[in-house]
Predict the 3D structure of the following.
Amino acid sequence: MPSKTDLLKGIRDEVWALKDSPLYQYRIENKNFPVLGEGSHDAHIMLVGEAPGKNEAKTGRPFCGAAGKILDELLAHIGIARAFVYITNIVKDRPPENRDPFPDEIALYGPFLDRQIDIIQPKVLAGLGRFSSAYLMQLFHINDTRPISSLHGEIFEATASYGTVHILPLYHPAAAIYNQSLKDTLKKDFAVLKKFL
């Protein structure tokens, strides 16, 4: 039986070789890395962003830029070390100029995220931003189409292949860079994660 690490490495290798991706050429031209994810392979909490930014694509690490500093601050605020969660994105390659991921990109990379979820088997999946929150809600057949401004901080219970999972839509940490008042909202919403430790 392959280990979780071996299974995740298999996903990594497939993404590295994903020449069919509309983002592959941009990755090669800019000497970028795909960003698969990092953290505990036995994490109870999985944080799912949308797509890597410039710093992430240069290092291959998720949330290592300005939004990552805010994410680290939010985790520290609730007493959770970054090493105890698993952090990833739906789209594993950087879209040009940090634009929003296109639907065909989400459709192409989504199955890799689905497999990461099945391997790690988290108790809670927190969607960081509207695209990842909408993806997770759809994946687990939660029919609530309210905008992230209404959904954020609410917990939705769903059934995964391995049992019960909770979906938590959240604002993207980058939103707090442009709107400081959202940081307090994010802190309050992140506090919900404590009960899943």
In short: The mean pLDDT is 96.
